[in-house]
Recover the amino acids of this structure.
C-alpha cells in the first residue's frame, strides 16, 4: 500500500492528499499558500496517515504551483472557451493595484457572476505579448 501525505489549509480547512512516492514530494516541504481563491492560508502537512473522505487527490507539483498558476483545469482554456465564459456575464468585482503611473491602474482579476450562487474569477498577468489569463478559479463563497 502506498502511503499518503495529507495536507490541510490552516484557514479554510480544505484537505489534499499526495502519494508519498510522488517524485516531487519534497516541494511540499516549502511554504505553500492555499490555492482556493480568495483564501491565502498556509498549507501544512498533517501527521495523519488515514486519508480523509473529503481529501482532494493531487500531484505534489500541481499543489505547489496552484496558488499562482492554478490547477491544470484552471488554466487550460481556448479562445472560444474564454469568449463564451465572459460574453454576456455581469462583472461583480475587479481587483486593482496602483500602477507606476497614477492614471494607469493594474487589473489583477475580474470576477464574473455565473449564477445567483456562483462567481468565477479571472486572474490576469502581464506578458510581452499583452495581458494573459493566468487562471480562472471558482470562488469559495464560504470564506
Ligand atoms: Zn485555504
Amino acid at each position: 500500500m502506498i502511503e499518503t501525505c495529507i495536507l490541510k489549509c490552516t484557514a479554510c480547512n480544505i484537505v489534499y492528499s499526495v502519494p508519498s512516492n510522488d517524485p516531487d514530494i519534497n516541494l511540499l516541504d516549502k511554504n505553500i499558500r492555499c490555492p482556493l481563491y480568495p483564501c491565502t492560508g498556509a498549507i501544512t502537512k498533517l501527521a495523519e496517515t488515514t486519508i480523509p473522505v473529503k481529501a482532494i487527490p493531487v500531484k505534489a507539483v500541481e499543489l505547489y504551483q496552484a496558488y499562482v498558476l492554478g490547477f491544470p483545469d484552471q488554466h487550460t482554456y481556448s479562445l472560444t472557451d474564454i469568449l463564451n465564459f465572459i460574453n454576456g456575464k455581469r462583472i461583480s468585482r475587479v481587483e486593482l493595484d496602483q500602477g507606476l503611473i497614477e492614471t494607469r491602474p493594474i487589473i489583477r482579476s475580474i470576477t464574473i457572476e455565473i449564477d445567483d450562487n456562483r462567481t468565477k474569477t479571472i486572474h490576469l498577468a502581464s506578458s510581452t505579448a499583452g495581458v494573459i489569463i493566468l487562471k480562472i478559479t471558482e470562488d469559495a463563497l464560504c470564506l
